[in-house]
Amino acid sequence: MKNYTQTIEFLYESSEVKAVRFRYALLCFDLLMLAYLVLSSFFYGSSLTHFLDVFFGIAILLDFLARLVISKPLMRYLLNPITLADVIVIFSLLLPMVGENLAFLRIARMFRLLRSYHVMDHLAKDIPYFQKHRDIIVSSLNLFIFVFVMTALVFETQVGKNPNITNYLDALYFTIATLTTTGFGDVTMQGSSGKLIAVLIMIFGVSLFIRLIQTVFRPHKVRFECKHCALYLHDRDASHCKHCGNTIAIPDDGLN
User: Fold this and answer.
1) What span, in angstroms and rounded, lies between the C-alpha atoms of 71 and 105?
2) How far is CA 187 from CA 65, 130, 135, in A?
3) Of 137, 83, 92, whose CA–CA distance to 115 is shortest?
4) Nearest CA-CA partner of 180 in 139, 213, 220, 158
5) What's the DSSP call for residue 224?
6) How far apart are CA 30 and CA 27, in angstroms?
């Protein structure tokens, strides 16, 4: 048991080349898992997705157990939001095999998208492009997660009950039309719960959604380190540091 623990510690914590490659393999798995969560939604009910659900569920479970073995302190790891999201996703991937009554847990799979922030932290450390454009990428990520969580909620609560929503694309179409306040009316929600969800989406559509769009195309802050006080975030049009008052020269490509 001790040898297994040492091996896990080496793979997850060592700075040697083999360990770094292993962690990047896990990073690639996270990206693959995120892509699967989105794409599998368009193939609802197929036998292939049921098989892949089990595969990814077991893989995430093994990763979770490995991290659990070497975590110190244990409670900090268990109470970490990403850890809790992984636990929810594991249940959502494996428990629906017991019966369709638990199929609603598919909504919880979108919690795995929280892993995107963890992936972004790793990429920003090693790739200058991600560090330079981090604000825009994170804002885009927030928008992506928000849209797909809303779409998953619409799909899972309406499929099989609403003739207007028979696949994930229908749910995505309704969500985007509602968030943008376009409201074509050709796809509508049914039932009291459906109408309540539609109301919530409309409320978010005129607040959070528009806000996220604005931050994607025009972030409010730029990352540039002040040479005098090391303040890192500044207004886009700042000529002086708000913290120390010294002049700063933020590079500008003339497009802002």
Assistant:
1) 28
2) 43, 38, 34
3) 83
4) 213
5) -
6) 5
How far is residue 28's CA from residue 58's CA, in Å, rounded to a whole number? 17
DSSP label at 105? G
CB 178 within 8 A of CB 205: yes
Residues 112, 207: Cα–Cα separation, whole Å: 24
> Across all residues in the chain, what is the average pLDDT?
77
The whole-number average pLDDT for the span 80-107 is: 69
Tokens of 51: 């098989």
Question: What separation, in Å, do the N-terminal and C-terminal C-alpha atoms of the chain show?
Answer: 58
State the amino acid at position 195 in one-letter form. K
Highest mean pLDDT among 46-50, 189-193, 210-214, 237-241: 189-193
Nearest to 88 by CA among 66, 105, 104: 105
Lowest mean pLDDT among 57-71, 80-94, 192-206: 80-94
